[in-house]
C-alpha cells in the first residue's frame, strides 16, 4: 500500500471511531450469505456504490459503476456488519484502478484508495447506510449516518423477506430517508408520493412516511455551513465573497464535510476529554445536518435517538437519491417509535 493510501486509511479509521457502536463481530469469509442488500441508484447521474464489511461475511462485489435507474443486489451473512455509500464522479481504467494503480484518489467524494472494488473505508464526505444485522439480543441496528459528512441523498428500506414479525412492523417507522441536495429535493410544500396508490420507499398511503415540513428550497440549498462546503461558489472577480455569504448561489452538487473530519478537534469528534455524552454537544455541523435530515445520525452521541432497531432477519434496500423530502419519523412519532424490540 502506498504511503498516501495508508495515511488515508488511518485518517478514515480515526474519523470512523464513533460510528454505530455494537459488539464486535469477526470478519469471516465463509458464512452463509443468505441476506440481500439491494442497492438502487435513482440519481440522475452515474454513481459508484461501495461496501465495507466490518464483521460477518460480506459480498464479493465491493464497488461498482451504477448507471441511473439501476439495481444491484449483493449477498451478505445474517450477522454482517458494515456500511454502504456512493462515490461521485470517478474515473477508473478498465482494470478498475486509477492512474497510479489505485494509489491516488479517483473519485471526488467517497474514494477508497483509487479502486473501483473497495478494500477499505471511503474518504469523507459520504452519506453512509450503516448496518449491524445481528447485534445484541438478536436485533438488527441500522442508521443513515452523516457523521463523516454528506454527499448523496440516501434512504434505507427494510425488507421483511416473508418474516412475519418483520411484516407486522409499521414500515413508516423503519424506512428513513435523507434528502439534503437541492437537485433531488421536492420544492413544493406538501410532499405526497402516494397519489394513485403509489408506493414510496416500501410504504403506502395507509401507513405513510412522515416527511419533514420545515425545510424549503432555500434551506436545503444552503444548509451546509459555509466553511464545510466541498464546492464553495466561485468568489466574484475581486476574490472576496460579499456578506452575507448565504445570499450567494451555491452549486447544485455540493457535498458537505463534517466539522470533525475537517478540523479533527476533540470537541467536534467527541474524542479525548469530550469522549462522554455529557461533555460532547452537537457541533454547528451536526445541528445543520440534523435540521436537513432529522432521522440521520449526525454526531457521536446522537446514536441513541437515530439508530433503528428491529428483530434480526431482514434484508435491506439502500436507495441513492430517493427524491422528495427527508423523513421526520423520530420528530413526529418519538424516539421510541424506531425501536422495535424482539418480543
Ligand atoms: C441464514 O443462514 C444462517 C446461518 O447458516 C441460518 O442460521 C439462518 O437460518 C439462515 N436464514 C435464512 C432466512 O435462511
Ligand atoms: C429495482 O428494484 C426495485 C425494488 O425491487 C424495483 O421496484 C425496481 O423496479 C427495480 N428497478 C429496476 C430498474 O430494475
Ligand atoms: C467531475 O469531474 C470533472 C473533471 O474533473 C469536473 O469537470 C466536473 O465538474 C466534476 N463533476 C462533479 C459533479 O463533481
TrEMBL record:
Keywords assigned by UniProt, alphabetized: Disulfide bond, Signal
InterPro entries named among the record's database cross-references: Osmotin/thaumatin-like_sf, Thaumatin
Coiled-coil region(s): none
Disulphide linkage map: 43-321, 90-107, 112-118, 178-293, 224-256, 260-269, 270-280
Signal peptide: 1-16
Protein name: Osmotin, thaumatin-like protein
Organism: Recurvomyces mirabilis
Amino acid at each position: 500500500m502506498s504511503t498516501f493510501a495508508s495515511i488515508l486509511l488511518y485518517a478514515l479509521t480515526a474519523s470512523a471511531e464513533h460510528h454505530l457502536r455494537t459488539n464486535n463481530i469477526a470478519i469471516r469469509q465463509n458464512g452463509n450469505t443468505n441476506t440481500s442488500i439491494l442497492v438502487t441508484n435513482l440519481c440522475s447521474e452515474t454513481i459508484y456504490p461501495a461496501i465495507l464489511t466490518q464483521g460477518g461475511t460480506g459480498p464479493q462485489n465491493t464497488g461498482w459503476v451504477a448507471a441511473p435507474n439501476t439495481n444491484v443486489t449483493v449477498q451478505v451473512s445474517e450477522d454482517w456488519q458494515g456500511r454502504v455509500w456512493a462515490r461521485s464522479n470517478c474515473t477508473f481504467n478498465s482494470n478498475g484502478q486509477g492512474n497510479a494503480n489505485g494509489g491516488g484518489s479517483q473519485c471526488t467524494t467517497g474514494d477508497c484508495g483509487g479502486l473501483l472494488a473497495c478494500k477499505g473505508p471511503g474518504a469523507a464526505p459520504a452519506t453512509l447506510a450503516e448496518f449491524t444485522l445481528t447485534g445484541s439480543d438478536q436485533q438488527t441496528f441500522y442508521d443513515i449516518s452523516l457523521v463523516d459528512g454528506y454527499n448523496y441523498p440516501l434512504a434505507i428500506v427494510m425488507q421483511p423477506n416473508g418474516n412475519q414479525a418483520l411484516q407486522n412492523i409499521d414500515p413508516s417507522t423503519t424506512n428513513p430517508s435523507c434528502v439534503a441536495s437541492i437537485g433531488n429535493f421536492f420544492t413544493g410544500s406538501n410532499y405526497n408520493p402516494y397519489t394513485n396508490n403509489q408506493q414510496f420507499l416500501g410504504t403506502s398511503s395507509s401507513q405513510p412516511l412522515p416527511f419533514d415540513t420545515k425545510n424549503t428550497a432555500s434551506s436545503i440549498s444552503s444548509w451546509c455551513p459555509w466553511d464545510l462546503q466541498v464546492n464553495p461558489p466561485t468568489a466574484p472577480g475581486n476574490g472576496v465573497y460579499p456578506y452575507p455569504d448565504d445570499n450567494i448561489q451555491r452549486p447544485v452538487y455540493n457535498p458537505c464535510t463534517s466539522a470533525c473530519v475537517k478540523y479533527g478537534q476533540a470537541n467536534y469528534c467527541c474524542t479525548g476529554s469530550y469522549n462522554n455524552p455529557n461533555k460532547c454537544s452537537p457541533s454547528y455541523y451536526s445541528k445543520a445536518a440534523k435540521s436537513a435530515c432529522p432521522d440521520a445520525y449526525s454526531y457521536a452521541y446522537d446514536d441513541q435517538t437515530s439508530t433503528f432497531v428491529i428483530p434480526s432477519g431482514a434484508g435491506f434496500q439502500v436507495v441513492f437519491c430517493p427524491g422528495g423530502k427527508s423523513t421526520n419519523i423520530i420528530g413526529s412519532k418519538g424516539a421510541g417509535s424506531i425501536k422495535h424490540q424482539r418480543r
